Amino acid sequence: MAVHASARPQVVAVGSAVHWRGETYLVAALQGTSVHLFSWHADGEDAVVLLDALHRSPGFRVLDGPDAPTHDEVPAPPSAPARRPLGGADLLDGLPDQARQEADFWLDHVLEVHTGLPGFAAPGSAPRPCYDPERTTLRDRYAAKATELCAAHHQVSAATVERKRLAWLEQGVWGLVDKRRVRGRSRHGRVDEQVVTLLRKVHKRQEKKSIGTRSRLFELLRRACVRKFKKKRAERLMPSRATFYRLLDRLGIVCGKQAAARRSDGSHRPDPPFTLAMATAPGEQVQIDTTSLDVLALAETGRAVSVELTAAIDVVSRTILAAVIRPKSSGAKTGPHSRRHGGRATKAVDALLLLAEMCTPQPMRPHWSLKATAKGSDLPYAQLVEADERMEGAAARPVIIPEMIIMDNGKVFAGRPFMNACAQLGISVRPACVNSPTHKAIIERTFGSIKSLFSQFLPGYTGKDLTHRGKHVAGERLWRIDQLNDFLQQWIALGWQQRPHEELRNPFLPSMPPRTPNQVFAAHVASSGYVPLRLSPEDRLRLLPTAWVKVTDKGIRLNNRTYDSRALNGYRNTLSGLPGKGQRWPVRYHPHQPEKVWLEDHRNNTWAQADFVYQRLIGDAWSEHVWDQATAAHLNEGGHTRDETAIARLVRSLLERAGRGPSLTATPQQAPVERGMHVGSAPVQDPYRGIPAPAYHSVASLPVMDIDPRELCAPAVRIALPGSQSGAPEPGDGCPKEACRVVPRNP
Question: What count of other Cβ atoms lies within 10 Å of the Cβ of residue 312?
């Protein structure tokens, strides 16, 4: 490594010109830790300043370069002894002995060329005539030194002496070291640098794709070399397979199982140093995210589906503020540009409902354990009920109003509905960096705890991947989505909030056992208090997603459904009065309760409710997911999305089928066995192929013969029938078939 001139420390010596407090001074004397400065300007003032204060002053610098005053502007400073540049001397300690000896050898000769005296000269010595700076030029000294070294059997030219001197002025003693002796081994060995650069590009393009082996990367690099360097040159530059594998080890490029382990364990790990999530009060930081719960459940249609968990956790108390489970399925599309029907995953409305649940106490349910009540927990129940009467009879889960939410960049949270809801509640949002789950590490670790403490004890647990999955998971007795949600809410109040957490220790008394989230919340409430947030019915409606639709004579058309009521009469085919919206009005809808929608009138802050016109055909609670399933089935039969009555009847049939459960009498049709290509001799073609099988039960029996079978073989005599011509005509005479008959001859 080289120490450049710009990185050299600024040395203050007698005779130096310095820039201090906007003026130029001359260093006249150094006395202890004080510096005596003479002003360059006639009207300036001299100063005496501490050397340490001089170095720490803003704008201070030593004017040894082009900024130094010229001799025409100021009188010449007093002569100062020559100063050798600093830097690089400590680097010689790690060099080999021969490299240090060469540096010391050149240092004496370079000093003699530069100052006239070698480094070992005694004080008061006079320079030799050929190296006297006052009598010779640098060119003469370069040539004299080269001649002297050649006479001592060192093949050196004047240009080499000049290069050594300039390197010494630029880098100090380190510039005199032969860099070939300190050159390390290249990371890529003898492989061409262009091939290494191309390898890095090829590997970077494969980072987001499925993991492959080293042989695939070798083949991709070979193809890239042929495209870039042509075939003949690529064969010369391309390393062998063994050299290529050693190159991957040197560059730290992993493939196969190692790459899979790195991708699953730490591919998105940021560079250190790491900063812990710091918060001092409940709600100061809340982390929210979505993950797969590794459990199968029964959806509204009665089919087994995977589920997702969306949860929010408080950083200070590790309290799970709210959590919700939603099914996850891909659905189907009828065309490349059509809307996907039947698909389902966590949506923006689930994140909005999560915000509402954070601000509302969790009510106790009749079938829950009494240990899950807030009254018998570590929460300050009396103080909470006094501040908020809704806490009476609530579950042991505190209510914490978030001040800032840390989220990822998923479309569920980064969309406009979630941002608008947070702005309405006065919550600031801070997105995490892309592909950086460690920026919200607490919620990520909480998901792992939920899967180990809750998910793996449920029927239908699938594990984190196929290697952990059982053979007959889908055939187990699965719980419904609403039942899983009920179990999760009870487990949060009982198994999480009242369970000691290893991260919740008293920093002043680390020997004490860890506290529970409820205990930490109670301690913070005693110091900072508790202020509830009450959401009115209108506030809850404003948290729902918004659709801008036109109110026609038939009502509101939303998601292939029609909503209408008498309350919409004043809004049909009228302008909304909002800029750029025309006749479109803001309509709030709930995907999990699609029976109704609400139109917001901003003029007088009123709401107009409209009902689904074909709700009577369904007659039961349903969701938009069931509607999408019925729409997909209707489209597969050749129907249209505007056939609302037919889709509503299919929704009703799906709900009835889900209520009945799987059939116990119907035997599932066996899937055909895939046997692959045919081997062996070609099969003989059936000669009776295409001929229907005879119906043996309809075949009549043959009549009994009334003659001896032996007479069947006797020669026949043709006789003429009455009314025919005389004689026995021969066959082919033109005799009609009915004019003669065959009479057997007696033996």
Answer: 26
The rounded distance, in Å, linking the Cα atoms of 428 and 403 is 6
Ranges of the chain with pLDDT below 70: 1-11, 31-32, 64-94, 182-187, 260-276, 301, 330-344, 660-678, 680-683, 705, 709, 712-747
Tokens for 511, please give them: 């020997």
Helix (H, G, I), strand (E, B) or coil at 329: strand
Distance CA 297, CA 526 (A): 42
Coil, strand, or helix at residue 162? helix
Phi/psi at 161 (5° precision):
-65, -40
Pairing between strand 428-431 and 404-407? parallel
CB 651 within 8 A of CB 645: no
Cα-Cα-Cα-Cα torsion 227, 231, 235, 240, nearest 10 degrees, comes to 40
Query: Which tokens belong to 593?
Result: 């309760």
* Domains in the chain: ranges and CATH: 5-62 (2.30.30), 89-181 (no CATH), 193-266 (no CATH), 286-528 (3.30.420.10), 545-658 (no CATH)
Q: pLDDT tens digits, residue range 246-299?
A: 898 888 888 877 776 666 555 566 666 666 677 888 989 999 998 988 899 887
Q: How much is the pTM?
A: 0.57
Of the candidates 185, 162, 186, 184, the one whose C-alpha atom is nearest the C-alpha of residue 175 is 162
Our CA angle for 38, 43, 46, nearest 5°, is 25
52 — phi, psi (to 5°)? -65, -40
The single-letter code of the amino acid at 103 is: A
